[in-house]
Specification:
Layout: H1 9-12, H2 20-23, E1 37-38, E2 60-66, E3 74-78, E4 91-98, E5 108-117, E6 120-122, E7 134-138, E8 143-150, E9 155-160, E10 167-172, E11 176-181, H3 183-189, E12 195-196, E13 206-209, E14 214-219, E15 227-231, E16 236-241, E17 247-249, E18 260-265, E19 272-277, E20 281-286, E21 295-298, E22 304-309, E23 316-321, E24 326-330, E25 341-343, E26 350-355, E27 362-367, E28 372-376, H4 383-391, E29 395-396, E30 405-409, E31 415-420, E32 428-432, E33 435-441
Parallel strand pairs: 1-29, 8-12
Antiparallel strand pairs: 2-33, 3-4, 4-5, 5-8, 6-7, 9-10, 10-11, 11-13, 14-15, 15-16, 16-17, 18-19, 19-20, 20-21, 22-23, 23-24, 24-25, 26-27, 27-28, 28-30, 31-32, 32-33
């Protein structure tokens, strides 16, 4: 769903052009009775008997889905050597994910390559057609290549080191964090041959027990090899690489009273990171001080599930809560406890959020309501455009959509995590209980 109720939509939307047979016809097509397409929202609208939900193909530049043997509730998109920014289809992406198998010993870490991700076909047989001159029909299906490594226990969260993508950390439900080197598996994916190999076995570079399982995990973008992990008992540790090829793990940082749900390193300061917790607080830390955080603020009235640090505007932090609330904070004013934006669109827990790596005002979030929302904080309400959209018969948009809501993606069950591609503007990958979606909204 593209939100028509926004002030700068023209700069970000793409018009549908006439097909050649429509443009060249000497007689107008027969008139059909206009039928309004209703936007359906989970937890608000019911699906009647015989009704079927359909996505609008014109809302996407591409949309592909696939699944693996077991659900994977965490993934990370890997940086590659194919260049950036990449704007022309077809695209290729690499990612790593971890399974949630029925039996602990059946779990695997999966590295995959999705090649030949096609966009919409040009609407005319003209190689000079612009990106706007696209039909809703996509070209062939992409090709999936997979390599797997055995992993004991389900994977709660998985993250790739940004400076060395083959180095991956995994959080296991068995209560430990492991660091892996998947350079051989990634090399096996590079040949242009789709397929799946049987899961192999690989010894981790390091296995570090926690007192219980956890979910918080993040690599630093500023200090290569530095890792932060947090568990469900409020313990928070910093991993520092040592000359011996291992990591030295700090004692727990003291500040949270409940489960550490998420961790984010500062995009500009090597010793600074943020954490959020089921104690409803966000903490800002300096790695040189373990006994207390630099700042601590109650961010929501429920568990704070996820946080995201803006990579392009380093004083902006976003948070998502158990009650569905999505807030944006100015870290320069964090001690006041006042947020700069508060969105209550989602009705169920926010499970993931991430700022766009290319536009500093754009953020994506997903929720247990099975919606993935894209927001642009720079957008403002435009009464004239709203009035024009209200007259259009093809769309019946809800009147209460926030103007900053740029796009809504649905269709996945038990939606858990999303990531922007760091080298392909506007490309998103999401994972859920029923598989993966790779897509690019047409207006992002």
């Amino acid at each position: 769903m593209r939100n028509p109720k926004k002030g700068k939509a023209k700069a970000k939307s793409k018009a549908k052009v006439l097909q050649p047979e429509e443009a060249g016809s000497s007689q107008p097509p027969p008139l059909a009775a206009p039928s309004a397409r209703t936007v359906w929202r989970p937890d608000t609208d019911a699906v009647g008997e015989g009704e079927e939900l359909q996505h609008d193909p014109s809302a996407y530049d591409c949309l592909h889905s696939f699944s693996l043997e077991w659900p994977c509730l965490s993934l990370d998109v890997l940086r590659d050597d194919l260049g950036q920014p990449r704007t022309h289809f077809p695209h290729t992406i690499y990612a790593v994910t971890g399974s949630q198998a029925a039996v602990a010993k059946s779990n695997v870490i999966t590295l995959f390559k999705l090649a030949d991700i096609a966009g919409k076909k040009p609407s005319q047989d003209d190689s000079s057609s612009s990106d706007d001159d696209m039909s809703d029909e996509e070209e062939g299906q992409p090709r999936l290549s997979v390599r797997q490594v055995a992993h004991h226990g389900a994977i709660n969260r998985i993250r790739s080191m940004p400076q060395q993508p083959s180095i991956v950390a995994s959080w296991s439900e068995a209560g430990h964090v492991q660091v892996w080197d998947f350079v051989a598996q990634l090399q096996q994916l590079r040949p242009d041959e789709p397929g799946t190999a049987k899961p192999g076995r690989l010894a981790p570079l390091q296995l570090q027990p926690h007192s219980t399982e956890g979910y918080a995990l993040d690599w630093s973008h500023m200090a290569q090899g530095h890792l932060a992990s947090g568990d469900c008992r409020g313990n928070l540790h910093i991993w520092r690489p040592s000359p011996a090829g291992k990591w030295q793990v700090s004692p727990s940082y003291i500040g949270h009273q409940s489960s550490v749900e998420d961790i984010q390193w500062s995009p500009t300061e090597a010793t600074v990171f943020a954490s959020c917790s089921a104690d409803q607080h966000i903490c800002i830390w300096d790695t040189r001080e373990q006994t207390k955080p630099m700042l601590r603020v109650q961010a929501h009235d429920s568990d704070v599930n996820v946080i995201g640090w803006n990579p392009l505007t380093s004083y902006m932090l976003a948070s998502g809560a158990e009650d569905g609330g999505l807030r944006v904070w100015d870290l320069r004013e964090l001690s006041s406890g006042e947020h700069v934006a508060n969105f209550t669109y989602h009705r169920r827990p926010v499970t993931s959020l991430e700022w766009s790596p290319f536009e500093n005002s754009v953020i994506a979030a997903c929720s247990a309501d099975n919606q993935l929302s894209v927001w642009d904080l720079a957008l403002e309400r435009d009464p004239e455009e709203e009035a024009a959209m209200a007259m259009a018969p093809e769309t019946d948009a809800p009147s209460d959509l926030p103007p900053q809501l740029l796009f809504v993606h649905g269709g996945q069950e038990n939606l858990k995590e999303l990531h922007w591609h760091p080298q392909i503007p506007g490309m998103l990958t999401s994972t859920a209980g029923d598989g993966f979606n790779v897509f690019k909204p047409a207006n992002v």
